[in-house]
Design brief:
mainly alpha, about 60% helix, two-stranded antiparallel ribbon, about 5% strand, 2 strands
């Protein structure tokens, strides 16, 4: 059994102001995404994206925070927030849903791109290959906070988490950091140039977004077998967690998007 590192969630304090590791991980994730998107846009000489990337990022940040919070409220603990609606804006107390945040980002991004005349599928592919870096930092933040820990186990690398009771558990946050973060980045980043080379049916814009939805959904679905279900929900749909149900929907959406983008490309080619 390994010892949990017991890192203070508060990195430093300046009077009443606290800088937390979890918040810092969000900042690092956004900064990495911003830098990698700029790198790609400059290499592609996509002037339109370079002109709008700052405002688009602001829209995406609002989308991920609003979508993530509302997703958690509606999907994971609706009864509590229905009884305590004043707690809904209190994101600092915890409670964010990745699937809600993902939907919020997509809606915000497509809304901004349509409004400014930017190809939303091309922009989605530009951004989505950078998202696993943010996921990696986010899961490290979960690990430092000792939250979203795994199920009880006897594997040699199990840990006793501060809020997880006296029994050793899977460090499932690190599993997710490895699969959703590093693994998915290594899958998507080498493919980033393919959609830009041609408009043919093989790699139409939107393909990388579809691959991300399928890849993340599969990775998260598997890790959920080692992660402790949310206490207020437990298992649903027999032995599956809410995260697995949402990931199954995510994979299905990715497959539909993949087929739809391929069909759209073939129709444009035929025209």
């Amino acid at each position: 059994m390994l010892e949990f590192p017991h890192i203070d969630p508060v990195l430093c304090s300046l009077g009443p102001l606290q800088i937390r590791w979890y918040g810092l991980m969000y900042v690092l994730g956004f900064a990495a995404t911003y830098g990698l998107v700029l790198l790609q846009a400059r290499r592609l000489q996509w002037r339109q994206m370079l002109d709008h990337v700052d405002n688009l990022n602001i829209a995406l940040i609002f989308g991920v925070i609003l979508g993530g919070r509302l997703g958690y409220v509606l999907l994971y603990n609706p009864a509590h927030y229905l009884a305590n609606p004043w707690e809904i804006p209190a994101t600092w107390s915890g409670g964010m849903s990745f699937h809600g945040g993902c939907l919020g980002v997509l809606l915000a991004g497509f809304w901004y791109c349509r409004r400014k005349g930017i190809d939303p599928w091309k922009a989605a592919d530009l951004y989505i290959v950078t998202v696993p870096i943010g996921l990696f930092f986010g899961r490290l933040g979960n690990f430092i906070n000792g939250e979203l820990y795994g199920r009880v186990t006897s594997v040699p690398w199990a840990m006793i988490f501060p809020d997880g009771g006296p029994l050793p558990r899977h460090p499932s946050q690190l599993y997710e950091a490895g699969l959703e973060g590093i693994g998915l980045f290594l899958l998507l980043w080498p493919l980033k140039d393919k959609p830009w080379k041609a408009q043919g049916a093989n790699w139409p814009h939107g393909t990388l977004l579809a691959l991300f939805l399928i890849g993340y959904g599969c990775c998260r679905f598997g890790v959920e077998f080692f992660r402790e279900p949310d206490a207020q929900l437990g298992f649903i749909a027999r032995s599956f967690s809410m995260g697995q149900v949402l990931c199954a929907i995510m994979v299905l959406a990715g497959i539909v998007l993949w087929l739809g983008r391929k069909q759209s490309a073939r129709q444009r080619g035929a025209a």
